[in-house]
Design goal:
The chain is α+β, with helices and mostly antiparallel strands and 307 residues long. It has two domains: 2-181, Aminotransferase class 4, branched-chain amino acid transferase, N-terminal domain (D-amino Acid Aminotransferase, Chain A, domain 1), CATH 3.30.470; 189-306, no CATH class. It has five helices and 17 strands. It has helices at residues 43-48, 69-82, 111-117, 123-144, 241-253; strands at 2-4, 15-20, 34-39, 53-61, 65-66, 158-167, 172-181, 189-191, 197-200, 212-215, 219-220, 227-231, 256-259, 274-277, 281-289, 295-298, 303-306. The strands form four sheets. Strands 1-3-2-7-6-4-5 form a seven-stranded mixed β-sheet. Strands 8, 9, 14, 15 and 16 form a five-stranded antiparallel β-sheet that branches. A hairpin with a 5-residue loop joins strand 15 and strand 16. The longest helix has 22 residues, at 123-144.
């Protein structure tokens, strides 16, 4: 096991990074199989330390499990199958990131890279590679976890981000995982490129002890008065973890799910609106402001569903 020392920043929470040094499939890790470090870098800074590759962001459930772990594993492997890792001499000025030219040129991925990356493109093998790292990283995180104004030690959930890539500089695949506190959004307002701004209600990002969740139903059928959940078509949005769970709830409870773009002209029919996010779960929207200052939507009521 290797230990890295870094100059900590006061602006970021204390986090953990664990990196696999050897492609060994097993339930446990020996000291030479991985490197682990404590750090105060952001998730973006963590990702930028490595060559270009595939990453995913997840969250814990009750601090002991990763929500939709199998889905994150499959998504990672599917993405890696689409990526061609090709050598390049473009090294960053800082020297801490070897750039790989992964564009759609005619150049093919070297055979030795394809062979080295094969375990990371197979969901069953990759599962055996990532789970021991997750266990090791979470164990270390719980040891050094801090209490902050927005994160209670021993209670708050953890945001987990991992990246898989190939380093031509080190001639090996890289699997690294970042563990950091999952905290509330810094602001209840967000703005879109189209000029709309949203005021978000209290989302479900925090720890929930019971099994009841509040979900905002987007609109209702004016003829049948039955609820309808409307979301953008799949080829315009990512099929995220929470979107899949919302879909499962709709199927279970007999709620009609429509794949079309919500239209503000139909706002009179809306019962509620919400944003889904892997780390935040469900964020209900309380107000929608247009760029001309008009308030076009105000949440009326909540409808309960069980997760």
């Amino acid at each position: 096991m290797e230990t890295n020392k870094q100059t900590f920043k006061k602006t970021e929470p204390l986090s953990v990074v664990v990196e696999r040094l050897k492609t060994m499939n097993g339930e446990s890790l020996s000291g030479s199989d991985f490197a682990i470090s404590e750090t105060r870098i952001s998730s973006n800074e963590f990702l930028l330390q490595y060559p270009r590759g595939t990453y995913t962001a997840a969250r814990t459930v009750n601090r002991t499990a990763i929500m939709d772990l199998q889905g994150h594993i499959k998504r990672t492997c599917d993405s890696l199958k689409l990526v061609k890792f090709k050598n390049s001499e473009n090294i960053s000025i800082e020297g801490n990131q070897d750039e790989t030219n992964n564009n759609d040129s005619e150049e093919t991925e070297p055979d030795y890279v394809t062979q080295a990356m094969a375990p990371y493109r197979d969901p069953e093998i990759f599962k055996g590679l990532v789970i021991p790292l997750l266990k090791t990283g979470l164990t270390k995180y719980f040891e050094i976890e801090e209490e902050t104004p927005w994160h209670i030690k021993g209670v708050g959930e953890i945001k987990v981000t991992w990246i898989v890539c190939y380093s031509f500089k080190e001639s090996r695949p890289i699997l690294a995982i970042y563990f950091t506190p999952l905290h509330a959004p810094s602001s209840s307002k967000c703005r879109t490129k189209q000029g709309f701004s949203f005021k978000l209600g209290r989302g479900l990002w925090g720890t929930q002890k019971n099994s009841r969740r509040i979900v905002k139903i987007l609109m209702h059928n004016p003829d049948t008065r039955l609820p309808i959940v409307v979301t953008a078509p799949l080829h315009f949005v990512l099929e995220g973890t929470i979107r899949k769970i919302v879909t499962m709830i709709c199927e279970r409870d007999g709620i009609d799910l429509k794949s079309w773009f919500p239209n503000l002209d139909d706002v009179v029919h809306w019962e509620g609106a919400f944003i889904t996010s892997t780390s935040r779960l469900v964020l209900p929207i309380e107000l929608i402001h247009c760029r001309d200052g008009r308030v076009t939507y105000t949440a009326s009521r909540s409808i309960e569903c069980c997760f």
